[in-house]
Amino acid sequence: MKTVNLTCIGCPLGCPLTVEMDGAEVKSVTGNTCKNGDKYARKEMTNPTRIVTSTVRVSGGHLPVVCVKTATDVPKGKMFECVKALRDIEVSAPVSIGQVIVPDIAGTGVPVIATKNIRSV
């Protein structure tokens, strides 16, 4: 058996978690003070995902870039591929919060959306 220590990010408490693994199977999670900790640890050990945040160039806007993020989590192993794909994207102003910038980033099926309004100049 393998023991892994994590800090939970499922709620603001930041509980220290201990996860007992048997190969790829989670055998137990301890240290959590709420159910979010158990859920977080199991997901982190078997299928880790992340929200990707970055910026995209904007032409004709009052700012040169717009902040963007994935609408939902993407597999952790696809993070760098997502960021690399965003490097070559440029959108035209105006841009609205929630606007889809890329409908399917890196083949994940997850859209990338704007998180800031950019007005035209």
Major sheet characteristics: 5 strands, mixed
Write down how many β-strands occur, each being a DSSP E stretch of 2 or more residues: 10
Structural class: alpha+beta
Number of helices: 2
Helicity, in percent?
10-25%
- What is the 3D shape? elongated
Average of per-residue pLDDT values: 96
- Along the chain, the helix and strand elements come as EEEHEEEEHEEE
- Poorly predicted residue ranges: none
What strand line-up does the widest sheet have?
A: 8-5-6-10-9
How much is the radius of gyration in Å?
18 Å
Euclidean distance between termini CA atoms? 61 Å
Give the amount of beta strand, in percent: 35-45%
Describe this structure in words.
The protein has helices at 35-46, 79-87; strands at residues 2-7, 16-22, 25-30, 49-50, 53-59, 65-70, 74-75, 90-92, 100-102, 112-114. It is an alpha+beta fold and 121 residues long. The protein is elongated.
Topology readout:
Layout: E1 2-7, E2 16-22, E3 25-30, H1 35-46, E4 49-50, E5 53-59, E6 65-70, E7 74-75, H2 79-87, E8 90-92, E9 100-102, E10 112-114
Parallel strand pairs: 5-8
Antiparallel strand pairs: 1-2, 2-3, 4-7, 5-6, 6-10, 9-10
